[in-house]
Amino acid sequence: MKSLRSCCPISSSLDIFGDKWTLLIIRDFFAGKFLYSEFLNSPEKISTNILASRLKSLEENGLIIEGIKSSKTGKKSYKLTEKGKGLYDVIDAMANWGLQNIKGTAKRISVPPQ
Amino acid sequence: MKSLRSCCPISSSLDIFGDKWTLLIIRDFFAGKFLYSEFLNSPEKISTNILASRLKSLEENGLIIEGIKSSKTGKKSYKLTEKGKGLYDVIDAMANWGLQNIKGTAKRISVPPQ
Would A33 disulfide with which of A28, A41, B9, B57, CB 3.0-4.6 Å? Predict the structure, then answer.
């Protein structure tokens, strides 16, 4: 485990998930996506190298685990751990702020963590 | 106003405040800081150029406004707008996640938005 920059839980959390692509991937999990190809197809068009690096980091930090590769399709899947599911309130608060403050946004995530 | 990458309120929000330094500055506001020098002195040691660029961006996006410069000290101050104060739930959710999931963190912010 890396040493903390400060004992602040916000700063320490941001060192784990504080970049926009990581949080968009977390959003996608809560929207029911779990396949590598589904993350790639999200409207913000994440690149393959960023997606791969962020998934690796999320896995190393214990927020997601790799699922079983489908024997039919050979597709890689991932799922949120309990620690990852704990980010629901962060994502939900961001969605609410966006809806209230940014014109042209519409809510898509309504699934609470499973 | 920039066009949105998608109609997702989370993605659109992250385009405004989705980097770790911006969110640390917002945290500092909720911790009662409002002077340029106070942000600089936070334990994570933000650099002057990043601090200046993030404050400018927060101001352009209507999350903070510049306060009156003290005639005594000549110090620049800032304050959160209503839109900025709306981020309290985001910061609070991150703090709670950090406290629950990262050893060695301790809560410092207990002030609800004024």
Answer: A28
Residue B86, pLDDT > 80, answer yes
Residue A87: its chain B contacts at CB < 8 A?
97
Residue ranges per structural domain of chain A = 9-101
Within B1-114, residue ranges assigned H as helices are 9-17, 20-30, 36-40, 48-60, 82-85, 88-101
Global ipTM: 0.88
Q: Is the pLDDT of residue B5 over 90?
A: no
Those residues whose C-beta lies under 8 Å from the C-beta of residue A6, and which sit 6 or more positions away, are: A12, B42, B43, B44
pTM value is 0.89
CB A64 within 8 A of CB A78: yes
Structure tokens given for B2: 């920039």
Segment A65-83, tens digit of pLDDT: 998 776 777 788 999 999 9
| The amino acid at B99 | L
Q: Are the beta carbons of B27 and A11 separated by less than 8 Å?
A: yes
* Cross-chain residue pair A89–B93, CB shorter than 8 Å: yes
Which of the four CATH numbers 3.40.50.10420, 3.40.50.720, 2.40.110.10, 1.10.10.10 does domain A9-101 have?
1.10.10.10
